[in-house]
């Protein structure tokens, strides 16, 4: 199956027009379609107090509540895709500090205008002598104004589902990220493919639901484009109104915060090189453990046996190496990190005979 084609709603010539139509179909209340509810952990602790530094109009016209902001952003170059009125952009600007940079990309001129309106005021509020934010009118599917391998972190807040060409979106994120860089974002996914007739209705897309991907299709597309091991950090059932649920009968939605590392040192399956990592416990929001994904927490100060897709966190070039140390190397390969059950549970050939009641001579050729 051509997964990219299934979800494609426009080609390069029509990206901006598609976003314009979706914006026009959206409701007046920007919070009405917010999917990243302000539940526990939806806004990182280190960012919560920084919300007070962001202008009220920016927050009141922003379309989401939660904020997909990973730790260790100081000094980083961050790209915020479909940044809207810029709330997450200005939160990220405070977290990267004056030595970092944030590029907010937004397709809607009116929303971007609100972000631009407050640029100078926000920088003064943050105490920055020079602006560390650049606001660009554009679309995520064409980031040609950003050079290859120059971005540390790409974020987006429940807007990937709006993309008219999700393969192009993923490919551009992959292109601009540095080796060991991170795509960290929150969005809505489904437990099955939404019928195309339903997802073709612009009003359904404007609800931030009609463009949602079947989560396994996202995994396949991401892996095919070079993100070998997508991880899901926080997952929650997506709240729907009765009217919204009626538009998508039988389909379950979940709001998921995703972590994808741009590393050729990872693989599409968790493999064992005998490596261990130790998290030093120094992250303010994680003094007792490091949250890698929804199933894995690494206790502070304790060695943990990990696969190649996790040990990359502590390797050169990854910003998490500031707090994570790797013990071991990749000179010896031990196979599947969980033990390859296909191999290890295979029965032996003792007692198996051929049609002449002779012991079977096993060969692979």
From TrEMBL:
Gene Ontology terms, MF aspect: methyltransferase activity
GO BP annotations listed: methylation
Catalytic activity: arsenic triglutathione + [thioredoxin]-dithiol + S-adenosyl-L-methionine + 2 H2O = methylarsonous acid + [thioredoxin]-disulfide + 3 glutathione + S-adenosyl-L-homocysteine + H(+); arsenic triglutathione + 2 [thioredoxin]-dithiol + 2 S-adenosyl-L-methionine + H2O = dimethylarsinous acid + 2 [thioredoxin]-disulfide + 3 glutathione + 2 S-adenosyl-L-homocysteine + 2 H(+); arsenic triglutathione + 3 [thioredoxin]-dithiol + 3 S-adenosyl-L-methionine = trimethylarsine + 3 [thioredoxin]-disulfide + 3 glutathione + 3 S-adenosyl-L-homocysteine + 3 H(+)
Keywords: Methyltransferase, S-adenosyl-L-methionine, Transferase
Keyword S-adenosyl-L-methionine on entry: yes
Domain annotation Methyltransferase: ranges: 74-201
InterPro entries the record matches: Arsenite_MeTrfase-like (IPR026669), Methyltranfer_dom (IPR025714), SAM-dependent_MTases_sf (IPR029063)
CDD domains in the record: AdoMet_MTases
Pfam families reported for this sequence: Methyltransf_31
E.C. numbers: 2.1.1.137
Keyword S-adenosyl-L-methionine appears in the UniProt entry: yes
PANTHER family hit by this protein: ARSENITE METHYLTRANSFERASE
Family in the record: Belongs to the methyltransferase superfamily. Arsenite methyltransferase family.
Name this polypeptide is given: Arsenite methyltransferase
Organism: Gordonibacter faecis
């Amino acid at each position: 199956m051509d997964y990219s084609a299934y979800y494609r709603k426009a080609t390069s010539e029509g990206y901006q027009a598609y976003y314009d139509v979706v914006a026009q179909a959206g409701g007046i209340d920007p919070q009405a379609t917010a999917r990243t509810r302000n539940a526990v952990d939806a806004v990182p602790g280190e960012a919560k107090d920084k919300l007070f530094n962001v202008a009220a109009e920016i927050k009141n016209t922003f379309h989401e509540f939660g904020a997909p902001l990973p730790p260790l952003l100081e000094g980083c170059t961050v790209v915020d895709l479909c940044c809207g009125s810029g709330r997450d952009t200005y939160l990220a600007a405070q977290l990267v500090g004056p030595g970092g940079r944030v590029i907010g990309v937004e397709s809607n001129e009116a929303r971007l205008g609100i972000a631009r309106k407050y640029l100078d005021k926000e920088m003064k509020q943050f105490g920055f002598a020079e602006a560390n934010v650049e606001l660009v009118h554009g679309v995520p599917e064409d980031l040609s104004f950003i050079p290859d391998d120059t971005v540390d972190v790409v974020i987006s807040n429940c807007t990937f589902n709006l993309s008219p060409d999700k393969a192009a979106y993923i490919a551009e994120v992959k292109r601009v990220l540095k080796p060991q860089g991170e795509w960290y974002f929150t969005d809505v996914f489904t437990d099955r493919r939404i019928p195309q007739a339903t997802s073709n209705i612009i009003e359904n897309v404007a609800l931030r639901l009609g463009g949602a991907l079947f989560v396994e299709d996202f995994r396949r597309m991401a892996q095919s484009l070079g993100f070998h091991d997508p991880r899901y950090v926080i997952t929650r059932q997506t709240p729907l109104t009765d009217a919204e649920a009626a538009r998508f009968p039988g389909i379950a939605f979940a709001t998921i915060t995703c972590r994808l590392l741009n590393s050729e040192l990872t693989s599409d399956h968790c493999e064992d090189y005998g490596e261990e990592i130790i998290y030093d416990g120094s992250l303010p929001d994680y003094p007792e453990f490091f949250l890698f994904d929804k199933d894995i927490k690494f206790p502070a100060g304790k060695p943990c046996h990990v696969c190649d897709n996790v040990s990359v966190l502590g390797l050169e070039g990854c910003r998490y190496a500031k707090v994570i140390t790797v013990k071991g190397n990749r000179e010896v390969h031990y196979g599947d990190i969980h033990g390859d059950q296909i191999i290890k549970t295979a029965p032996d050939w003792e007692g198996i005979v051929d049609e002449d009641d002779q012991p079977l001579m096993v060969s692979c050729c």
